[in-house]
Design brief:
It is built from 1 helix and 24 strands. By secondary structure, it is mainly beta. Strand 10 and strand 11 form a beta hairpin.
Length: 378
């Protein structure tokens, strides 16, 4: 050997990863068709990388659904991942919606890329809507808008509205806000503003809470929901009856309410049953209202389905020192016999019923038949 030389060369770590969607946008021609999102991850770096992919599907009936996959991507290799989800009836009725896919490096859950997939329903019962005209307050958007309006000569209105969310190492955080201020006001108006934290099967909400139950509860408050095994869901919440989050009135001055609701088969809109208890205190009438009710939805087949509700209430008044019970029952159905479409709604409430449709009996029956250019109904 005449000569020998050793030279050290340090190669910097390159952990570049790219994420691309292979089937965007997605067009659905049938409400029974499952959603399938295909994503490719390419490792253009010089080290193998352990990753986690999270696919978020906004289902109005089941809340945000998170699907996860983990994999090891070798150097200069790529892998294809497929997420498949069967939408509920509520999600299938939407003209369009968006699905978010995010990639994380393990174990620190460092996000390296994300993508949005637009899903458009093109079945005959849907209408087309361009995704760019979607309401920017929906959960799939990360946008904020500031506006100014002038009304007349001396009224100036400023408004800030927006929504957005991001993935956490163990869940998802979503925020929405609507803040308006007039120069004639002493305090801003803050409505439809809340923070939602989704962690696995738990969901926490603080801020504006709107519950459209048999007795409507709207205001500032907190809500918690948990989904158990076998699709059992429990919801509880407390609401101060004041729609402005920054109202200077003392807490509970305009009344307050509490609710709890349990649902069996929560992710099945065709066959489920739920029970709810609602309490509300009204300081203006100085009354306390309690209502206990149950509701069931049952689809016999693709044509025949029914819904039934039963509610019982008990109201007490401090000034009159009286207690009054109340009761309501409601049922509706939809179906078809040959070429005839049938649907009916039947409702009854006792003489004193503090909630909607007080003391009434409603019987409604419709029959319709479609001809080539004519629809006959009765």
């Amino acid at each position: 050997m005449i000569a020998e030389r050793i030279k050290e060369h340090i190669i910097e770590i390159n952990n570049d990863l790219s994420l691309s969607v292979l089937n965007a946008p997605i067009y659905r021609s049938s409400s029974q068709e499952p959603i399938s999102v295909r994503v490719r991850i390419s490792n253009s770096g010089n080290i193998s990388q352990d990753i986690t992919l999270v696919c978020k599907i906004p289902d109005p009936e089941n809340g945000n659904q998170f699907l996860e996959q983990q994999a090891l991507i070798n150097v200069k290799k790529d892998s294809t991942f497929t997420f498949t989800y069967q939408p509920s009836k509520g999600l299938s009725r939407l003209s369009n919606f968006s699905i978010n896919v995010s990639g994380f490096r393990n174990p620190d859950k460092e996000i390296f890329n994300s993508a949005t997939v637009f899903v458009q329903n093109i079945s005959s019962v849907q209408k087309y809507q361009d995704p760019q005209f979607n309401n920017f307050t929906e959960e799939t958007k990360n946008q904020i808008t500031a506006s100014y309006r002038k009304v007349g000569d001396n009224i100036d209105m400023y408004q800030l509205i927006g929504s957005g969310g991001f993935n956490l190492p163990s869940g998802f955080l979503y925020m929405r806000g609507n803040i308006a201020f007039l120069n004639s006001q002493q305090q801003p108006l803050v409505t439809n503003t809340n923070i939602v934290l989704q962690q696995g099967k738990d969901q926490y909400t603080i801020g504006s809470v709107n519950k459209l139950l048999e007795m409507t509860l709207v205001g500032r408050g907190v809500e918690y929901s948990h989904t158990f095994e076998k699709n059992k869901k429990l919801e509880v919440g407390f609401i101060d009856q004041n729609f402005n989050l920054v109202e200077k009135n003392s807490f509970l001055k305009n009344g307050y309410g509490f609710f709890t609701k349990g649902t069996l088969n929560a992710n099945n809109s065709s066959r489920n049953i739920s029970a709810a208890y609602i309490y509300r205190y009204d300081p203006f009438e100085k009354s306390k209202h309690n209502i206990l009710g149950t509701e069931t939805n049952y689809a016999f087949d693709e044509v025949w389905s029914m819904n039934a509700k039963v509610n019982a209430g008990l109201s007490s008044y401090e000034t009159q020192d009286i207690t009054k019970p109340s009761f309501s029952a409601e049922s509706n159905y939809i179906g078809a016999i040959k070429d005839y479409n049938l649907n009916g709604n039947y409702f009854f409430s006792s003489g004193y019923y503090h909630w909607n449709r007080r003391g009434s009996i409603q019987l409604q029956q419709n029959i319709s038949k479609n001809y080539e250019k004519l629809q006959l109904f009765r």
